[in-house]
Specification:
The complex is a heterodimer of chains A (about 80) and B (about 140).
Chain A (H helix, E strand, L loop, with lengths): L2 H13 L20 H15 L16 H9 L5
Helix pairs in contact in A: 1-2, 1-3
Chain B lengths: L17 E6 H11 L10 H6 L1 E2 L2 E2 L1 H18 L11 E5 L5 E5 L1 H9 L2 E11 L2 E10 L7
Antiparallel strand pairs in B: 1-7, 2-3, 4-5, 6-7
The chains are: A mainly alpha (about 80), B alpha+beta (about 140).
Protein name (chain A): Acyl carrier protein
InterPro entries (chain A): ACP-like_sf, PP-bd_ACP
Protein name (chain B): Holo-[acyl-carrier-protein] synthase
């Protein structure tokens, strides 16, 4: 797991103290770990840790659905 | 089941309502943690101005505006997309009631769902703001 993704995971866990861990393939939306209000803050966090600007209006849910998807979309993707 | 259910899915006269509730506590934490500029990610300058009083940003107005955007979005019945916050604009009319304007991505979503316009009502009391929205079905090209 990249450092950036670990910080994202820690951020989610801090807001959901009832959870001990988040499996990388857990659906964050279906399990209500991210909702529309926290999504805005979540994108803000992703921008800070990935160093990339994210266009919220065109963002697909699937790119944020799991930690694996987030890592692939924002922390592993090659910057050309 | 269609991948992108339309507003008319239930037959003539059918309309999907949207509703949302926003906690003042959550929005206050966002304001405390990130400052007022953070809300520019969700609201346009005019919307933020509508939420100001002589003493600064009014939290209940802000929560109401956020709830209205979410409620309006829910009427669109869009799958696989997040709320395009700044493309659903909720402004205060001269009469004081909220008016919804759909721009760019939100306007495209509405057109795909056969929605011409959205009407919304907001209420708040102490700790929470709620909003309910109803779509106006029709061809978006004929928006009044």
């Amino acid at each position: 797991m990249t450092d950036g993704l670990q910080q994202v995971k820690d951020w989610i866990l801090k807001r959901h103290p009832e959870r001990d861990d988040i499996p990388n393939d857990l659906d964050l939306i279906e399990n209500r770990l991210i909702d529309s209000l926290s999504f805005v803050e979540f994108v803000f966090l992703l921008e800070q840790h990935s160093g990339r600007t994210i266009e919220m209006e065109t963002l697909e849910v699937d790119s944020l659905r799991t930690l694996d998807a987030i890592e692939a979309a924002f922390f592993l993707a090659e910057v050309k | 089941m269609p991948a992108h259910p339309t507003a008319q899915g239930g037959g003539p006269g059918w309309a999907n309502l949207g509703m949302d509730i926003v906690s003042v506590k959550r929005v206050r934490r966002l304001l405390d943690d990130h400052g007022e500029d953070f809300f520019q990610r969700m609201l346009n300058p005019g919307e933020l101005d509508d939420c100001r009083t002589s003493s600064g940003l009014d939290l209940l107005s802000l929560c109401g505006r956020i709830a209205a955007k979410e409620a309006a979005f829910k009427t669109l019945r869009v799958r696989g997309r997040f709320l395009p916050w700044r493309d659903i604009v909720v402004r205060r009319s001269d009469g004081g009631w909220p008016l919804v304007e759909l721009r760019r991505t939100a306007a495209e979503m509405a057109a795909e769902s056969g929605i011409q316009d959205i009407t919304v009502s907001i209420s708040h009391d102490v700790d929470y703001a709620v909003a309910v929205a109803a779509p106006v079905l029709g061809d978006p090209r004929h928006r009044p």
